[in-house]
Amino acid sequence: MTVSLEQLRRCHIAVDLGAARTRVFVKGTGLAVDEPSAAAVNTRTGALIAVGALAERMTGRTPDYIRVVRPVTGGTVVDIEMAQRMLRHLLGDKLRRQLRRKPRLRAAVSTPHDSDPLAQRAAIETLLGLGARRVELVDTLIAAAVGCGLPVEQPTASMIIVCGAATTQVAVLSLGSIVTAQRVPVGGNAIDHAVIQHLRHHHELMLPSQSVRPLQLALRGTGLTADGPSRTEIHGRDVATGVARSVIVDTAAVRDAIYTPLTSVIDGIGKVLRDCPPDLVADLADSGIMLVGGSALLPGLDQMLHEATGMPVVIAERPDVCTVLGMGAMLDGRIRPMVLDPLADAQGA
Ligand SMILES: Nc1ncnc2c1ncn2[C@@H]1O[C@H](COP(=O)(O)OP(=O)(O)OP(=O)(O)O)[C@@H](O)[C@H]1O
Ligand SMILES: [Mg+2]
């Protein structure tokens, strides 16, 4: 699915449409957009009221006639028209004018490794609607591996885990290609959901959707690890009476709740390793696992994966933007094309 570097070098913008965040890299400008993939719509008139961070802040706080929608779920654009309107607003007038000046605008968009033709078509249509004449699809795993500086073009194995909001993708790469990969439908959203359910069942406390992140921040430093305070105070609403109240929560129990969805990620790693040729698995014991994606920032996730697999685990420098920066590096021509047939090359010289 991944296009040649030559084609990518001709692109003007690269877009990563994620379930949680939308990121756009513009050639010559750099990372131009990094905003939540959300739009607030007036359901009476159909008008767009807000996009990005402002729309996300409105979630759960809107009157009846305003709805916050998310046009991307699980790595797939489910509402093409809304995704186009959202992208147009996120780009802003200045960038849109700048792009309109390009008579043959070319765009690159990342799609999950095993995305089906329908999902690929939806991503392409979204960008065609933005004025692109040609759209190239880039495999998220390759883009992320390039973005975090893995030696993808070398004949050694690298394992990458892209921890997104809706999905987690695990892959082993060697010689610039994906050797084996798995997509697990578990990500940051499932972890948030696990925390919400835990508080509902064990403390009869309802959390406003926005405060799950503060909870994770309260667990910061402890996260999934056993150090740090054993209890933390959480504010919410009583499930039965609806009255605001706060409870003291045992952080170890929250850790257990978070651990449950993560077991399927460990399963996914196991499957990838089983499908991987033994020589490459031997490489992985040294090189370890590279974690990218926003959920890689979940405190303690690296340690948990290290304990589960016994392999060294490293978090990328800027895990959340690796995918789009990887595409950016390919657009800028900072990645040298791989010479897959060096012998023929030498003869030609
Ligand atoms: N500091 C943090 N601690 C824990 N989780 C975090 C942190 N920062 C971001 N996240 C989580 O990362 C997720 C967003 O990651 P990312 O931006 O990679 O997703 P995405 O690319 O939009 O999603 P996908 O790739 O699944 O379509 C959210 O679910 C969010 O909860
Ligand atoms: Mg993503």
Automatic annotation (TrEMBL):
InterPro entries named among the record's database cross-references: ATPase_NBD (IPR043129), MreB (IPR004753), MreB_MamK-like (IPR056546)
Quaternary structure note: Forms polymers.
Family that this chain belongs to: Belongs to the FtsA/MreB family.
Organism: Streptomyces hebeiensis
Compartment list: Cytoplasm
Pfam family, one: MreB_Mbl
Residues reported in the UniProt entry to bind ATP: 165-167, 294-297
Known function: Forms membrane-associated dynamic filaments that are essential for cell shape determination. Acts by regulating cell wall synthesis and cell elongation, and thus cell shape. A feedback loop between cell geometry and MreB localization may maintain elongated cell shape by targeting cell wall growth to regions of negative cell wall curvature.
Top-rank lineage group of the source organism: Bacteria
Entry keywords, A to Z: ATP-binding, Cell shape, Cytoplasm, Nucleotide-binding
Record-given protein name: Cell shape-determining protein MreB
